[in-house]
Design brief:
The protein has 311 residues and is mostly helical. It has 9 helices and no strands. α3 packs antiparallel against α5.
């Protein structure tokens, strides 16, 4: 997610320079032929470009709003997952407490191992899910958060993040069998597990339902058609002449920039500068759960912005 206040002109040109060159060639070809071969009788009036430009503006406005809704929905889903993970850790944490079996009154070493492992696995799950959604290797950099037994079990799974939740449910039943939860707490933990599964499913559904391809395709077609009509119309205006070339390029730049904003935002889980900052949020959650759930002092560093963006 871009957080810098000033957009780098160089970085902007790296994204759009090819289209600027194409627009310059298109506008120059049509305008120069119109001016030097005196195609004044063949030039169009501004009626057609104005009508088409208005239609494209409405078209782009709808697309940009829809793309932002997808982005905002993804951010809300990721926030819900972080909240559910914190709620789960509140129930599992036993800082300054013993892992007493409420049925027998004895301290359970097995419960201590299992419940601390569940908190660390919860951290690993948020990382693995984020990397899955970005189509990156799921365990790169996070394998230390899960046991070797867990890793052997999930490394070949087609959906490692979901598999981790299944293992969490298994460990929950072990802790429950050791009498670790007061009345009602086990129901809360089950509800939290369902929230995590529901949230992951919603994220996967959003990723696997891309913005309609034909919408993007025809947006580009209509913009280029609009620029062609504009290049034929502007030279016919009094005192316009060659000034029509930069005018066409500038108008095209505005339309393509708006279209580009929507194109980047419509894929909130892709691996670029405009995505939901899943890594940054996952690291913040990791620091919280390690410090408050496991009382660890050595926390991983906060992820810092890279070239004005957080990932």
């Amino acid at each position: 997610m871009i957080i810098e206040r000033k957009i780098s002109t160089i970085r902007l040109l790296q994204v759009i320079w090819k289209r600027l060159v194409m627009m310059l060639i298109l506008a120059s070809t049509i305008v120069l032929l119109s001016v030097y071969f005196d195609w004044s009788e063949s030039t169009l009036d501004l009626t057609a470009p104005l009508i088409l430009g208005t239609a494209i503006s409405i078209f782009l406005g709808f697309r940009t709003n829809s793309a932002y809704e997808r982005w905002f929905k993804a951010r809300g889903l990721w926030g819900q997952l972080r909240a559910a993970s914190r709620n789960q850790t509140i129930i599992l944490a036993r800082i300054d407490e013993k892992y007493i079996n409420h049925n027998t009154g004895n301290v359970s070493a097995k419960a201590k191992m299992v419940m601390r492992r569940m908190i660390r696995r919860n951290i690993a799950w948020i990382w693995v899910l984020g990397r899955q959604l970005k189509d990156l290797p799921p365990f790169e950099g996070v394998q230390h958060l899960i046991s070797d037994e867990d890793y052997k079990e999930v490394k070949n799974s087609h959906n490692p993040a979901l598999k981790l939740l299944f293992i969490q449910a298994r460990d929950f039943r072990i802790a429950q069998g050791k009498g670790q939860f007061f009345d009602g707490e086990h129901f809360e933990l089950i509800a939290t597990q369902r929230e995590l599964v529901t949230g992951q499913t919603a994220c996967e559904g959003l990723k696997n339902t891309p913005f309609p391809t034909h919408y993007s395709y025809f947006t580009n077609v209509f913009i280029w058609l609009f620029l062609i009509l504009l290049a034929f119309a502007l030279p016919g205006i009094e005192n316009m002449s060659l000034v029509a070339i930069p005018a066409v390029v500038m108008v095209g730049w505005v339309f393509f920039m708006v279209e580009g904003i929507g194109a980047y935002m419509e894929e909130p889980f892709s691996n670029n500068r405009n995505v939901i900052p899943m890594d940054t949020l996952a690291r913040a959650l990791e620091r919280d759960l390690l410090a408050l759930g496991l009382a660890e002092d050595h926390l991983p560093e906060v992820i810092k912005p890279v070239e004005g963006a957080i990932y």
